[in-house]
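re: ur question from yesterday

yeah so i grabbed the chain u mentioned. its 159 aa long if i counted rite. heres the sequnce exactly as i have it in my notes:
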Amino acid sequence: MILVTGGSGQGKRGFSQGAFAKSGPGSRVVWCDGSKAGWDTFMREKWGWNFHLFIRRIMLGEVAVPLERMSSMLAQRLQEMELPWTQEARKGLASFLVQSLLEGNENRILVTEEIGCGIVPADPFERMYREETGRVCCLAAAEARQVWRVCCGLGQRIK
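ran it thru and got these structure tokens back, copy pasting raw so excuse formatting
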């Protein structure tokens, strides 16, 4: 997996296509949008963007997480929790999500926005969402073969 991160509107997808897409016939890149895709689609596709919004949709219950693939203890805990998930329910989610990404397509290009900078939101869910996204992205970066940060369309390899 290759993780590409950076601020909003910084050219992460364009950089990723230029740096990692093969050229020639049949090399068309199709992006899977985390703001719209379901679990199975997002886990299967090679090119994924808006990963931060995919995490948000999971936390809001808009994406059905396959509980049958989780450990029975985590699945039971998540079924018993009200949405949005509490901190207790999120304990195993980050590692499960990253493991699912790796099992789904180990050659994926995953693009996400940095959302933890700036003013701390007053809304408790927004704070929880930022923290959980950071936790998941830290685990994804640890497992990724490469990690890139993009600013003004220029990528800097950080791993």
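noticed a couple things. Residues 21 and 102 are 19 Å apart (CA to CA). also The domain at 2-17+30-151 is CATH 3.40.50.300 (Rossmann fold).
anyway ttyl
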